[in-house]
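Quick log. Single chain, no ligands specified.
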Amino acid sequence: MATFAHPVRNSVSEADMQEQSQPECQEEQTEERTEQLTEQLTEQEEQPHSVQHSDRASLLRERRDRLLESLVRSSRRASSQFADYISAAQRRVSCWRQSRDWRVNENALYGACLLGAALVVVVSLACVARAGIRSASRLEAIRERRLHSVENVPTVQEQPCSSPSCNQVSHMLLLSLSHEVAPCANFYEFVCEGWKRRHPLRGDKYQVSVMTEAERDVRKRLMLALETMAIPRRNQTQIDKLVALYRSCVGSLSREGQSLRDLRAFFRLHNYNWPEPHAPEQPEFFDHLLELDIRWNLAVAFRYQLVRDQDTGQSAVALRPVVPDASVLQPSLRRSYQSLIASMATLLGGEANYVDLVDTVVSVESLLAKQPLDGTRLAVPWTRVLSVLPGTTYQMWLRPFAKYHPLGGAIRGSDTVQVHSPRYFNSLLTVLLENVANGRSSWYVGWRLVLALACHTSHEFRNLRETRFLWPRGQCSALDVHTHCRSLAQRLMRPQWQGFITKVLLSPDAVFEVLGIVKRVRGTLEERLRQASWMDPETRVRAFSKLEALREQLPKFFVFDGRTPEYERYARLPDFSPSFLDNWLAIRHALGPRVDPTPPSNSSLPGGEVEAEDEEELLRFEVAYEAAANALRLHVDVLTPPVFSRGVPAAFNFGSLGAMVGRELTLGFDRVGGQVDAVGEPNWWWSLDTRRNYEMRERCFLDQLSRYVNESTAASKLARRVVAESSGLRLAFFAHKAHEMESGRRETLSDVTALSGDQLLFASFCYAHCHSVGKLAEVLDLRFGTHSLGELLCNIAVTNMIEFAGAFGCAEDAKMSSLARCRIW
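-> predicted structure:
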């Protein structure tokens, strides 16, 4: 029996077979297209990297997205074709006019069509997914090969900076950089040519430098803050009290001050009316002398102190006489001294005739000056003090001590008292006690008070002609008022002064950034110690111990804690008033003997001799390593442009501040630092092999110096400085690179786009060495032949760094490029 072939069924079967074959073709086409695109991406990625990493990454992402979009479009076309097939099949089935047998199979036909359609969709989606997975895996493999290749490191994004601080630094560099000298020819001239042209030497100055100009600007900022900072009258902070002390000092020592009125008020408070005579009872007079010494540290006749007995180890009271200054009684100065006494008596008393007062004071001082100090010490119980100091009883001494001293109540009559120079002490008390009743002792004591107080607080006293003649070195004569008052406030309130500078010059974020730079440089030195091939293992262990023991005195914001020994005395200070005399007495009461600089032995010169170096000790514009303490001291006042600027690219701060910190740190590990151990004691902790290896490396620097400096003595003198500067620059450079890699960003100056980050670091380093020197430069070791000190330090340091040649593209034969580079770290 012949088989019947239905034309419609055959046509459906052929169409079905044709449509089922389409997904397989589309899958092959999709895979083929994916492989082609992937191969194209791979070939392009293997080409030389001529674009930046960020551009390549974006290109890869763009092409990957195109591939996926193409796969999706192919899937959509397959789905639309399948939908057309289903519609055509439905139209054909609706046209059937067959027998009931055929209509019975109509549901089966629909089921078969739906099953086939589902199979086609599943196969298409599987093909698309497999192609997408293959493409994504290949793209990921390409990306991984790029990230782990030698040429490719984690990307660092360039970020131009245009903040006010960046604009200031940009302006500073633009005015200094040379347009004529190439950096590879003479880097110092390239960086400093414009600055030197704008800062010629004037007058008798022997040099002017970037650092001296910055120091002058810091002083101006501090003076402006002292003059303009708002100070409350009540509940003053410790920094407020510092500023209030300075302003009251300026007001009192100015022409419009009220110092004489304050002096008169002080005398009236103690029942004195100097220069008029006063005749109190002996106990009252003695009580007044002890009050002056114990409460305000005004020792006009003797000093009263608690000491520890060397024999028994217990506390004892020491009595020391005060000797008047005999130098003013010399024949050449005696008349001026008498005139000074008369002038101050006239200013305070208003009369013109004080001959008796002047004669009394001079005669008493002359008598005491003739009595030599024997330098002996006699220890007796208080109950026997009468035998040593006639005319006094132990009650006369102990009653005021218990009244004015917080520990006076614990002193008993059986306790020991040490009397220094008892013969002189006896003569002093005899003269004073015998003249209490006639008022002459009050004249002498009153004048000693005027001399002690007016020296520091009176404009009239400091500007008298006799004062300038008797004390020409400035301890009591007229100086610049603002300079004197600032130095006085610094000396009396050192912790508060450091807190004031930090508050004026830095913000909390800036302090944090400074600490981060120091930590980075110190960490880089630690890494270099591990890699120092010139050190043997034993010496390296000792070096690590010294680095670990190194103390850092870094900027910090002032936090007052009256419970600590450093601040407990300052906790006694009240709120300061506009009266400098009142503030001065309050400080003397709180700080005690530490108020006055150390005077000559047994001298009663008011305040002693204030050395000119006092201010310089408190304003050190530097970063310094102290070998005796194994400490790095970073003075706050140096943290200003060009050394440090908040908000500028990190390369600038690492090139200046980071290089300074690195320079000072390496001084603890060079040939001189190798002679001082971790606790600052003289101890040679280097081995002989380490010493020989170091000297061999140092000789390389000496050979370089010989190209610039003819004399071997001068080269040897400069060698340690040059080695330290070069080492500091290396540490700063690698510390900055570590910071850059960790932060993932590289900031540049928007106005100086020609300088990259590395170039900015080297420029910042050399800018700190810009200076102009004068005729005395060679005598002061600021010039060596035709080369200045700054030029040598800058050029030799950058010449020894291959990173510098790479940053500026210096050829091998360029002056700033050396085939024999020297380095220690």
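Residues 7-42+55-94+103-147 form one domain.
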